[in-house]
Specification:
eleven-stranded antiparallel beta sheet, mainly beta, 608 residues, 9 helices, ten-stranded antiparallel beta sheet, globular
Length: 608
């Protein structure tokens, strides 16, 4: 899933730039004429008032999110946001056995093969994969567009080695190395680090690109001493416990440091290349030395954690009540706390915590059938997760084990923003900010219910062809701009009525995509509300108060609880929580820039 796509594909630009009519005049009267059923008709455009009200969010529910934020994002308009993550740690299963035999058999052996195994950690690595853009390889030839000679042609030969990029992808050879195209008896497939198109990484308030000179940051991992409950005791443990973005766990509820790149003076450097892992030689294949080969992880963070911590708190606990069940282990270890500080750059990235893990590699003593012991004769890995999904036999999501909370620490907004929030007045500028930020409520036609205008439209017997809300960007001093907006029913938090051709909600209805200038600056968002307006006119639906937020994806239709600055508790689209990005748009209460004021545009056919 693309969460904060850069919208660089021409197809997306076509969607938002396509015009509704082949020709259009500048005035708001007749824009075309023709005949419907033998009767003359006129195609017209009408504009109506729109009222917008800014709302400040104090905190949002942030546990068990589909996507987490970690790091520091410095927005030129809204200031800095620091995102931290506090998470439980999950064993592969309750009461795990390390090595070959259980701790009970090690302590009280029944045969010569059951020996004290002396499990000893060799290494512990934390891995957090970055998000990648799945549309970054337009021709699906295995080479991202930025490196591809002809990004729309899978038969191009970028390295000019004789094989097409697509052929090299199938063969497992390097499409950027011509020497890898030749036949070689020693050839081993996929022995090179692929480059990925990284997504949703922000460096010093800008979207990350490979052209940035080695951006780096510091990561700290600490033991959490806070017990994250899975169920809420205030409702007799019948509902999941909610945690909010305003809850800070550090420094009060953190303990041992098990990794700190700042102490080692080795900041983490962002790379779009895969991470190579050297394989272990397989003794059963005498003619091949696998230790000269590599497997690869997707780009991300991979750092070595404190081995002593995991030896004492996991391996040495084999057979104890602390590891007897997942519940006991969560109570014992509590979890880990992740935070980021500047290592030369302010960096924030989005990631899927379900794909992150800790790999504990350890050795143990073995014994043959005669009881002859080989020190460190066995080696294996123990993988610890943070969040883990369980599925039914039909592939449906059954449950998610584990709990993790995203904490957002926001700088106080400047007075020119705070003075315009929660005023109850029609806004001249609309402030939208993801996370625990801001959103807007929208009323169409008037500040009550718009019935007078709706009834007038009905009496005119118009055929409504298209209706749009056009939001113009009101400030050039912005950071990374949200790729799209999301309009929803603010009274029920449900999606708005969908057209018959969009029953699955996969079109662009109610989700305006940003339109940019030639220099990449945001100009406007156009939100299509045709189905909503037709529902008011044809089906006598209520003209509800609408909500407007940023969103990284229209397909995240769920809602989550939020606490507003005015003390109100309500539900808001979850998607708005997943992004740090913000913008400011023109409202309708503007004196200057009259041509950019917020209005509802309705294109209709009038029959005589």
């Amino acid at each position: 899933m693309i969460f904060l796509n850069r919208l660089k594909l021409p197809a997306l630009a076509v969607i938002v730039l396509v015009t509704i009519f082949a020709s259009c005049e500048e005035d708001l009267t007749t824009v075309g004429s023709g005949v419907v059923g033998g009767e003359p008709f006129k195609n017209n455009k009408a504009v109506y008032d729109v009222f917008a009200y800014n709302k400040k969010i104090k905190a949002v529910s942030t546990n068990r999110l589909p996507i987490y934020q970690l790091g520091i994002y410095d927005d030129p308009l809204y200031g800095k946001t620091e995102a931290q993550v506090t998470t439980q740690v999950l064993l592969p299963s309750g009461n795990p056995t390390f090595g070959v035999t259980t701790q009970t058999n090690e302590d009280d052996p029944s045969s010569v093969t059951q020996i004290p195994e002396n499990e000893t950690i060799d290494s512990v690595y934390l891995y957090i994969p970055f998000l990648t853009n799945p549309t970054g390889d337009a021709d699906l030839d295995g080479l991202i567009d930025e490196l591809d000679d002809l990004p729309l042609d899978p038969n191009s030969d970028t390295d000019e080695g004789g094989l097409t990029d697509s052929q090299e992808n199938s063969r497992g050879s390097n499409p950027l190395d011509a020497s890898d195209d030749t036949d070689d008896t020693d050839f081993v497939a996929n022995q090179f680090a692929k480059t990925f198109d990284l997504d949703s990484i922000y460096v010093d308030g800008r979207l990350y690109s490979d052209n940035m000179p080695n951006p780096g940051f510091n990561l700290k991992v600490q033991r959490s001493t806070y017990f994250l409950r899975d169920l809420d005791p205030s409702v007799n443990f019948q509902e999941a416990q909610e945690y909010y973005s305003s809850q800070e766990f550090a420094p009060t509820f953190v303990d041992e440091v098990i990794y700190d790149s700042e102490v080692s003076s080795e900041p983490i450097v962002i790379s779009s290349e895969q991470i190579p892992l050297r394989k272990t030689d397989d003794e059963s294949t005498e003619d091949v030395d696998e230790s000269t080969q590599f497997s690869y992880l997707s780009p991300g963070i991979r750092v070595a954690l404190d081995k002593v911590f995991f030896q004492e708190n996991i391996l040495d606990k084999e057979g104890s009540t602390d590891l007897e069940s997942q519940a006991n282990f969560k109570e014992f270890l509590r979890g880990l706390h992740f935070s980021v500080s500047s290592g030369g750059n302010d960096v924030m990235f989005l990631f899927n915590l379900k794909l992150a893990n800790i790999t504990v590699s350890y050795s143990y003593d073995t014994a043959d059938s005669e009881g002859v012991v080989t020190a460190k004769g066995g080696q294996t890995d123990l993988v610890l997760n943070f969040l883990r999904d369980s599925f039914t036999s039909t592939g449906q999501l059954a449950s998610t084990d584990g709990n993790a909370v995203n904490t957002f620490v926001n700088e106080v907004y400047p007075p020119e923003i705070t003075d315009k929030l929660d005023t109850g007045e029609n806004a001249s500028e609309i402030y939208l900010k993801g996370g625990a930020g801001t959103f807007a409520e929208i009323k169409l036609f008037d500040e009550v219910n718009g019935l007078e205008v709706i009834n007038e439209i009905k009496s005119n017997n118009w055929i409504i062809n298209d209706a749009n809300l056009v939001f113009y960007v009101a400030d050039e001093n912005l950071g990374v701009e949200p790729p799209r907006l999301y309009l929803f029913n603010s009274e029920t938090n449900a999606i708005l009525p969908l057209s018959a051709t969009d029953a699955d909600g996969l079109s662009e209805e109610y989700g305006g995509i940003i339109e940019t200038s030639s220099d990449g600056e945001g100009v406007k968002y156009t939100v299509n509300v045709t189905t909503y307006i037709n529902n008011l006119v044809l089906n006598d639906a209520d003209n509800v108060t609408l909500g407007l937020t940023t969103t990284p994806s229209l397909f995240l239709g769920t809602v989550a609880n939020a606490m507003l600055e005015n003390g109100e508790e309500r539900e808001l689209p979850l998607a708005n929580t997943l992004s740090p990005l913000g913008t400011v748009l023109y409202g309708s209460a503007v004196d200057a820039n009259e041509d950019k004021k917020l209005q509802l545009e309705i294109f209709y056919t009038e029959t005589n």
